[in-house]
Amino acid sequence: MVKQINKLEVTTIATTYRFVALLCLYFCFVTTQARPFIPSDVSVKKTQITIQKMFGNEIELEVFENNSNLYSILQNDSVIAYYCIENAPSKHDEFEFLVVYDISLNIQKVQVLVYREDYGFEIKSKRWLQQFTKRKTDSVQAISGATISVNSLKYAIDRLNQKVKSTLHL
């Protein structure tokens, strides 16, 4: 037996579906809004070690006020490099990474600081990460088994490069 639906029921159902769809969009929008990224303590400690290995102990760090994750590295009151700690999504979580730039904003080093997944950790390989210092991000080679993380890191570094250039007005 087929139940007949009158126009009032159709209108009520359509209105309910529209309301639910708008509610879903609202929550998606609210939860994906840009919120400031705060690096973990582990990332900060690993970054300090890396920066000291690269530039020695005779440096000062100066944070940019409009971007709390972007720093200038100063030596004798002159900027010698920049670095930024950022995050990128992996399959189920996010990972944190470091990018060190020279004063011309060429990438000197990329390091994955914290990776929280069971799979895809191959992106932490120093040898693989060196590609970012020698190539444009679109020509960085993929890694079998880490496709999502690789693409996410490439996109995040592209986005970060643009953000750093606009912050430094270059």
Write a short abstract of this structure.
The protein is an alpha+beta fold and 170 residues long.
Explain the overall architecture:
By secondary structure, this protein is of the alpha+beta class. It has 2 domains: 1-33, no CATH class; 41-168, no CATH class. The chain has helices spanning 7-31, 41-55, 126-129, 131-134, 147-168; strands at 60-64, 67-75, 78-89, 94-102, 107-114. The chain has a 5-stranded antiparallel β-sheet with strand order 1-2-3-4-5, sandwiched between helices. Strand 3 and strand 4 (94-102) form a beta hairpin. The longest helix is centred in the first third of the chain and has 25 residues, at 7-31. It is globular and about 85 Å long. The model is unreliable at 28-33 (pLDDT under 50).
Average pLDDT reading:
83
Structural category is alpha+beta
What would you call the shape?
globular
Annotation field: number of helices:
5
Strand arrangement, largest sheet? 1-2-3-4-5
Q: What can be said about the biggest beta sheet?
A: 5 strands, antiparallel
| Strand/helix succession | HHEEEEEHHH
Percentage beta strand: 25-35%
Q: How many structural domains does the protein architecture include?
A: 2
How many strand units? 5
Termini separation: 71 Å
Into which percent range does the helicity of residues fall?
Answer: 40-55%
Topology of helices and strands:
Layout: H1 7-31, H2 41-55, E1 60-64, E2 67-75, E3 78-89, E4 94-102, E5 107-114, H3 126-129, H4 131-134, H5 147-168
Antiparallel strand pairs: 1-2, 2-3, 3-4, 4-5
